[in-house]
Amino acid sequence: ASAKKLAASSAVDEHYPKSPPKYIGIGSGSTVVHVVDSIAALDPSLTASTKFIPTGFQSKQLLLRHKLQILEIDLLPPGESISVAFDGADEVDSQLNCIKGGGACQFQEKLVAVQADKFIVVADFRKISKTLGTPTTWPSGIPVEVVPSSYPYVTAKLETMGATKVVLRLGGTAKAGPCVTDNGNFVLDAVFPTLAEGEDVVQDLAEAIKGIVGVVEHGLFYGGSKGWKGRPEMGYFGMQD
Ligand code: DER
């Protein structure tokens, strides 16, 4: 937790705006807990007038616990953008391509990220991987959120696209049957043997997955010049080994 905590506090020190922002995005997962702790510890003049936009139930509860003002993403006024969205990741390569979705919130996270001027991914050294999606570093592959009735069809399509393993994410001991996202959908975890470094490969795969009927969103967030919003400002904080 200390690596996460240190990465989170340095990300907030570096990227939380120096004058009070109107909107800040808050992602999901355990590292983001430390991000919100750091934000809550800032001078109140920097947070009191800010509306924080959650990316799911856990993110919302986190903000409520710190008594920070919440705004649902669909209430962001037209033409407004989020100054900075802070989030975690499950894997990051050297070009800031990420696999996200370990918490099954990747749709809301991407919806907030694409409306942010800056997207800061906070990930400790354990998330750095040379090649995204290799089964050794990421046992369950790329999380793909799908409309429940489409999961058999999407599974087959992912396999024809080269996925060597596609698993319907189950609720585990907490729930009989599949994990259901905040949006009422299922998650397929698709292992693609090797996503060579480089945004073209990642981008091509991301676009191919998104093109399958039934796919709502996937956990490939690619940065670099051709990033999913063509913005290179994906920051990355991690502790070197
Ligand atoms: O689902 C996600 O992408 C989350 O950001 C999450 O998986 C990040 O992982 P963490 O809990 O190790 O921060």
Automatic annotation (TrEMBL):
It catalyses: aldehydo-D-ribose 5-phosphate = D-ribulose 5-phosphate. GO terms for biological process: D-ribose metabolic process; pentose-phosphate shunt, non-oxidative branch. InterPro entries: NagB/RpiA_transferase-like, Ribose5P_isomerase_type_A. Keywords: Isomerase. The keyword Isomerase applies. Transmembrane segments: none annotated. Pathway: Carbohydrate degradation; pentose phosphate pathway; D-ribose 5-phosphate from D-ribulose 5-phosphate (non-oxidative stage): step 1/1. Its EC number is 5.3.1.6. GO terms for molecular function: ribose-5-phosphate isomerase activity. GO terms for cellular component: cytoplasm. SUPFAM superfamilies: D-ribose-5-phosphate isomerase (RpiA), lid domain (SSF75445), NagB/RpiA/CoA transferase-like (SSF100950). It is an enzyme of class 5 (isomerase). It holds the Pfam family Rib_5-P_isom_A. The keyword Aminoacyl-tRNA synthetase does not apply. PANTHER family: RIBOSE-5-PHOSPHATE ISOMERASE. NCBIfam families: rpiA. Belongs to the ribose 5-phosphate isomerase family. This is Ribose-5-phosphate isomerase. It comes from Drechslerella stenobrocha 248.
